[in-house]
Amino acid sequence: MQWYQLDKESLEEQLHVKTEEGLKSKQVETRRKQHGANELESGKETAKWLIFIKQFQDFMVLVLLAATLIAGLLGEFIDAIAIMVIVFVNGFIGFFQEQKAEKSLAKLKELSAPFAYVLRDKAWVQLPSKDIVVGDIVQIRSGDRIPADIRVIDSKSMETEESTLTGESLPVPKYSNSIRKDDLGPQDQSNMAFMGTLVTRGSGIGIVVGTGMNTAMGQIASLMVKTKKTITPLEHKLAELGKILIIVALILTALVVIVGVYQGHPVYNMFLAGVSLAVAAIPEGLPAIVTVALSLGVQRMIKKKAIVRKLSAVETLGSASVICSDKTGTMTENQMTVKEIYVNDKMVSVTGEGYDILGDFYSNNSKINHQFPQLKSMLLYGMLCNNASLMVKKGKNYINGDPTDGALLVAARKLGLSTADGEVYRVVREIPFDSTRKRMSMIVEDENKRQFLITKGAPDVLLPRSNSILSNNEKRLMRADDKTKINAVINGMGEKALRTIAIAIKPITSVSKQDEGILENDLTFIGLYGMIDPPRKEVKAAIESCKEAGIKTVMITGDHEKTARAIAINLNLLPEDGLVLDGYQLNQMSQKELIEIIDRVYVFARVTPEHKLKIVDAFQQVGHIVAMTGDGVNDAPAIKASNIGISMGRSGTDVAKEASSLILMDDNFATIKAAIHEGRNIYENIRKFIRYLLASNVGEILVMLFAVMLGLPLPLVPVQILWVNLVTDGLPALALGLDQPESDVMSRKPRHPKEGVFARGLGFKIVSRGILIGLVTLFAFMMSYQDNPDNLIYAQTMAFTTLVMAQLIHVFDCRSERSVFTRNPFGNKYLLLAVLSSVVLLLCVIYFEPLQPVFHTVFLGVRDWIFIVALSAIPTVFFGFTKK
Is pLDDT larger for residue 295 or for residue 803? Predict the structure, then answer.
C-alpha cells in the first residue's frame, strides 16, 4: 500500500479509524493478533555449542585430528598433544569471533521508541511502543523517537532526522498533504515518519500504517537476517591451500611408506614415518601464525585510528578493488559551512572548514574585513535570526541546534562578531521556521528602542516578498535586473551544490496590529548565503592514492544528485566519462543491466538500503572485492554483505558497528587508505611465511622420499621432524609476520580475487627451494653415513642440523619477491632474534646430554659445522643470484 498517496479521509476509511476518537479496545486486540507486537524479529539463534563444533569442520583440521589420533595410538604422545593444542586454540579464537558478529539486530531493536502517546477510545494515553497497532493515532513531539511507520496527518513545523535510515544529511520537513507519485523511496515520502528516526523540530499527529517487521526499519532487519556473510579472500585462499597440501601430503606419504616397505624397512617404522611426514607436510602452525600476524596488524591499526573487529578484515581491505564510501561525515566534515556570500552586488568567498571560527573573507581575490559594505550587517542579521549556539567540547567546536543556523553563526564569528554583539539587541518576537512557509523571522529591538524584522529563508520565497534592496549602504527599489542578477547567483551557487539562504530586513513601528503575513511583506533584500558540507582536506589525496593503487572509490549517499556530483568533482573522484545514478534510475534497472554498467558508475545518489545491497552485489558479480563504509542503520545490510564492512566510530550507529569488520575511530576516509597499506603488507607477510613453511616442508618430505628410494636408512626420525615443524619453522615464520612493507606495496594493482596463494611465482619458489634444501640435507646424510656407516645417529644428526640451518638461512630469502640481496638482512630485528633463538635451541638439542637420547643426536665438531653451514647456504645463495 502506497500510504503517502492517500488523503486523510481515505486513510481513515482504509484503516477503519476516526482521527478524533482513535481505535477501540476491541479493534486493538484484533489487530495485535493479526500483526503481532510492534517489535523487530531476529533470525533463529544458533546454539553456542554448535558454533563451537563448526570451528572443527574444516577439512585440514579434520585431517590433523586424524593424524593426532594415529600418532596417539602409535604412542607418539608429544606429536599428538602439540597438534591438539594448536587445533583447539584456533577453534576457540574462531568461536569467540563468531559470537561477536551477530549482535546487529539486538542493537537495531534498541532504536525503537520505548513509549508513545496514543489516542484510544477518545483519550490520549502513554503506552509501550510494542503495544502500538496499525491504525493507532499517535502524537509526536520534538525529541521523540518515532515508534512505528506513521502517515503524518497534521504537522506543525515538524522535521525528522533520518540519516540513519536514508542517508539524508539534513533534517527532513514533514507535511500532511498526500503525494500523487508512484514508487517513491522513503527519502522522498515527505508525509511519512519512519520507525526509529528522531523528531528534531516541531510536532505532529499521525496514523500508524506499519508496525514491527512491516516498517522500513523492519525491512532492514529482514535484510540483516537474510544477508549472508561473504567468505574473505584470506579464508578462501587458506581453505584452498589446505586442500592442496593435504592431497600432496597423502600422496607423498603413501609413496614413502610403499617404497620403504618394498625396500625392506619394517612396516611399523615406515607407518610411523609416514604419519610424521603427513604432519610435516601439513603446516599445522599456519592457522596460528596467520592469527598472530593478523592480531599484530590489529594492534598497528589501532594506532592508525582504526578498530578491527574481525581479524581477517585488515587483510581483506588490503585486497579491496572497490571502496563504496558514504559521503556525509566520511568524505565530508558533516559540518555545514558558509562558503560564499552575495552582498552589495558582490560575491564574497569565505575560507575555513567546518565549525572552526578561523577563516577569512575575499572579494576578487583580495582579503576584506568588516569595513566591506554591508558584510558586517548581513552576518549580524544571520546571527540574530538564529536559534543555534556554538559549544566547545574537548577543544573542538560543535553546534547545538540546526546545522544551517550553526553555519550562519560560525560565519559571523569568523568576522569577529561575538555573543556580546548580539546582546545589544533584544528579541521581541519570533516567528518560527515553518516547512510550508520556508522561512523564519525575528523581531529585534536595538539599544535605541528601534525595532526591525529579520527574515531568513529560501530565496524563491523571500525574493518575491522583497520590494527594495541595499546597495552601497543605500536602500533603493528593487529592479527587474536586480532579480535577474540574484537568480543568476542562486543558479551559480546551485551548480556548485551550495545550499542557498536569503536574508532580508524591514523596519517596523508596531507589532501587535500586524499579522505574520503582513509583517513578512515589503522586505529589503540584504544578500545570500551559499553553504555546503565541505569535503575533508585529506580525502582528495587519499582517493588519489587509492587510484594509484588500482582501487576505485565510489560515493554512495542519500543526498541529492547535484550535491553528490559537486562533491565528487571537488574530490577528483568523478572522471569525465564517469556515470552518476540516482535511486529512481536504479529502480528502473534490472540487476543484469546494472552489472553491465557498474564499472562506469562512480556516484550513487538518493539510495535506499535495498539499493546499497544491489550495488554491492553488482560489484561482486563482476569480480570486485568490495569495501563498504557507512554509519547508519540503512547502511548495515550492505556493510554485512560486502567483503569488508567499515563503520564510523563517532557518528556510526551501534547497528552499523556490529555489522562491520572495521570501525574508523575518526570517521575519516583517509584512515581507510592507511588500512589498505597495512592490509596489503599483512597479506604479503602471510605469503612470506607460507613460502618459508612450505619450502621447509617440501625439503623434509623430499629428503625422506629420496633416501627411501635410494634404499638408505631414514635420515630423520619423527621427533626431529616435529622439532623442525614447531621450533625451526614456527619462530622465524612469526617474525616474518612483523616484516616491514616493501617500498612499492601501494603502487601495485589489487590482486585478482581468483588469484591463488601460489600466484606470482610463489609455487615455483616453494618447490625449487624445497628441492634444493632436500638435496643438500640428503647429501649431508649420505656423506656422513658413507664415512661412518656404523654410526647412523651421527649421520642423522648431520642431516637434522643441515636441514635446520638451511631453513634458517632460507628465511632471509623469503623477505622479498625478488632476491635475497635486495633487502637489508638487518631490517627485521624480530627475524634476527627468532633465527638466533632457533640456533641456540638447536645447540641445546645437540650438546645438552639429557636431550641427546630424546632427539637422537650426538656431538658435532668444528669441521662438521663448516661443512653444514657451507651446504646450508647453497639454496639461498644460488637462487639469490638467479633472482627466480
Answer: 803
